[in-house]
Amino acid sequence: MISELEQYREVAPKGTIDFLYRLSDLVQGKRFLHITAVRYGGGMAEILRRLVPMMKSLGIDARWEVLAGTQEFSDVTRRIADGLQGSPQTISEEQYQTYLDVTTRNAKALNLDADLVFTHDPEPAGLVDHRKGGKWVWRCHLDAGRPHRSVWSLFRRHVVKYDAAIFSLSGFAQRLPIPKFLLHPSIDPLTDKHRDLSRAEIGEVLDRFHIARGVPILLQVARFDRFKDQIGTIRAYRMAQKYHRCQLVFAGSGVIHDPVGEKVLAEVQEAAGNDPDIHILQLPPEADREINALQRASTIVIQKTLKDGFGMAVSEAMWKGKPVIGGTAGGVSAQIVDGATGFIVHSVEGAAFRIRYLLSNPGIMTRMGATGKEHVRRNFLITRHLGDYLTMLKLLCSE
Amino acid sequence: MEPGNRDDVFRFIGCSEIQEILGKQADDERALAELLEDVPLDSVYFHTHSYFLRQRFIEQTYPNDFAEWVGMQVRDHVLAERLSVVDPFSFSSLDFLREEIISIIDDHLSGMASVPRVGFGAPFSFNRSRILEVPTGLEVRTLREFRDAISSVDASAIYLHVFESHLRLQRKENDFSTWIRGTLKLPELANQIRTLNPYLGSLERLRSSLLTMCDAHLAKSGQRG
Question: Are strands A278-283 and A180-182 parallel, antiparallel or unpaired?
């Protein structure tokens, strides 16, 4: 089982794996329980699928429980999640009672006995009302920096019963009477989305999407959403096109059953017009290898969003050695080291200027790409995440 | 914790940091100074010392979080430059360091018609560190072994034995220089390492400097031998 961690020795920074072994010595046998709403889908589940076996291989009694819900429960937790992220929501007494009832049923069905319990996001948060022992921590992966007041007022009554809460950025947190910690998300370099690909594999993906080889590629990986500002990216690309021929690729998820996404996609298609150098791709959620290939084939990655979560697409691109031009929203600026791994810009013109600058200076792009990869290696890989969890386990359970 | 002198063996201890959000945010330079006055010293430590633990590889434009925020978010380059030259190495306590930073901000604001504030950037968030010490299992008895360990040990151990010990020992000495002086009886090398200012670059650069010093000493003693 040791190989769970050993396979990261080649990609983690020098000394990290040995350090993690020593760190795990301090928490041998501790029971660490994670509770989520789903086992598949989303970055958090993706990382837990690897972190839990890694912790087990290190001698920690790690478990991962998943809630059993109902359609009504999903509806109300979606409203809570949207409300925490600032969208105006109304939650009726009846809906809130559904949340409490399903939570109670799960509390009876699940084994909640552990030294440290992490509930992830709003769905399992109410389980704290049924805590028996150990330390309880609410891990909020959402940007709850400006929640809808009435939803936060309702939800806060659960959060204050925790021993601590964790947020991905300081700005994502609310005032709370419990300790709040900062923990950045991470990427797993050994998954299909991030593993090394051969030239042939990359070429095959480019050919499949009719993207020309040998012409610089500007890439934006984001769902079709107004906050992702694909239109602004097209304007920046057009300004840069006057100086350098390049292609612009948008890789987003499909918009079926998503009226807003459908509308944004139509606007992006209209703005792109008949430009043969703009490629708009709708990819299924499981298209990890395609995203990986597009990122590796790109010349510059653009993440000039207007509002964002942590924006892991930035670290994903930097891991592939690409310079990133990003805005100040969410966690984008927490990942880019301005002038070293890419550029932080504040306008369409700023993005255009930096695209032009980088395309005129390939040597700088190469240097930034290499620096970005090392930056991710030290700060945004799953090995750092594991270290954070083990440290949390030790510090909180020793209090 | 007193690593080093026991049994003449130097035991490397690394560390892991968890960042705690204090929930205090400054939107302008006056609020920065006022909040800095109030926050626990742990927060001053976080933004001026463990800053280096988080920037192990890339050196940011400015060498502490205060200067970085003023320069990159507020875009007040004059104050950012003034805060950049504050050298934590020359302060024996965090209290004195805090006083120095506040007085620089106050002095700067006294000459301004309005208080510079963050426009498009993010506010300054005060955080603090919780540091967990982790024995690495690496033990050395000779300078050669010490040199080899420095080349491979997790960078957090270099942080703990240089930055942390500088404050903990409240003197201009660190764990490495103490052990090299006391156990290896190499005062010349100990003095070099004692006077090495760790606040001038990243942890990886500090690792390189330590290796260069050890290599030079080993080469010299080899010639003598």
Answer: unpaired
Q: Write down the architecture of domain A199-379 according to CATH.
A: 3-Layer(aba) Sandwich (3.40)
Residues in chain A closer than 8 A to B72 (CB atoms): 338
* Closest CA–CA distance from residue B25 to any residue of chain A (Å): 9
Tell me the pLDDT tens digit for each residue of A47-80. Answer: 999 999 999 999 999 999 999 989 999 999 989 9
DSSP H or E segment with residue A151: helix A149-159
Higher pLDDT, B170 or A195: A195
Give the ipTM: 0.85
CB-based contact B125 A183, cutoff 8 Å: no
Percent of chain A past pLDDT 90, that is, above it, reads 78
From B19, B123, B154, residue closest to A16, measured CB to CB: B154
Sign of the dihedral defined by the CA atoms of residues A106, A107, A108, A111, in that order: positive
Q: Which pLDDT tens digit goes with each residue over B95-154? A: 999 999 999 999 999 999 999 999 877 899 999 989 999 999 999 999 999 999 999 898
Whose tokens are 């009694």? That residue is A61
Cα–Cα distance for residue pair A171/B185, rounded to 1 Å:
51
Q: Decide if A125 contacts A178 (C-beta within 8 A).
A: no
Which tens digits make up the pLDDT trace of A117-132?
Answer: 999 999 999 999 999 8
Measured between alpha carbons, how far is A164 from A160 in angstroms, rounded to an integer? 8
pLDDT for the residue B185:
94
For A389, the token pair is: 């969890």
CA angle in degrees (0–180, nearest 5) for B1-B2-B7: 130
Mean of all residue pLDDT scores within chain B = 89
pTM for this structure? Answer: 0.89
Domain residue ranges of chain B, discontinuous segments joined by +: 6-14+136-224, 16-128
Smallest CA-to-CA distance from B173 within B100, B98, B92 is with: B92
Structure token pair of residue A221: 């990986």
Which residues of chain B lie closer than 8 angstroms to A374, CB-CB?
57-58
* Rounded Cα–Cα distance for residues A71 and A284 (Å): 24
**Could you give the residue range(s) of every CATH 3.40.50.2000 domain in chain A?**
3-186+381-398, 199-379
Q: Tell me: pLDDT of B74 over 70.
A: yes
Shortest Cα distance, chain A CAs vs residue B216, angstroms:
24
Dihedral of CA B177/B144/B164/A27: which sign?
A: negative
* CATH level 3 topology of A3-186+381-398: Rossmann fold (3.40.50)
